[in-house]
Design brief:
CATH architecture: 2-Layer Sandwich
Largest sheet: 6 strands, antiparallel
Distance between the termini: 62 Å
CATH topology: TATA-Binding Protein
Mean pLDDT: 87
Number of domains: 1
CATH class: Alpha Beta
Shape: elongated
CATH superfamily: Kinase associated domain 1, KA1
Order of helices and strands: HEEHEEEEH
Length: about 150
Amino acid sequence: MISLKIIPVAIVLIIIIYLASLSYMTRQHRIKPDDEHQLKPCPNKPNCVLSLSEKESQAIEAFQIKENNKQLSWENLKTAITKSGGEILIDDGQYCHAVFTSTIFRFKDDFEAVQNNNQINIRSASRAGKSDLGQNRKRVEKIRLLYNN
């Protein structure tokens, strides 16, 4: 018979192994080819926000171009991303893909931005798991705050 003291330890161990395996699965960067520099819809999970989403739980406001200066706005966005801890993988002046890494389990989240007319549409999504406990929305709002200052 298994001791009752072992059960909580086994549960904690299983959770740690699960989280570590999720972290490992997200390690590889997913670089999009040039012809795919667009924002795809969020999956049907609460771990993604998208400025183009019609689903209220995933929708978030796009960033507005400042003073009709697209180049300055784009530079401000990149600065805000790096100040927020993001690593920019792609920047072609119209599309930006950055990766954020969580502290404990080193989960990778993708942040993408596309410049359109007078706004910058954004998408921030976790690579693994179902819920992000609101982290992608918080990240976008932190970037927005830095972008607007």
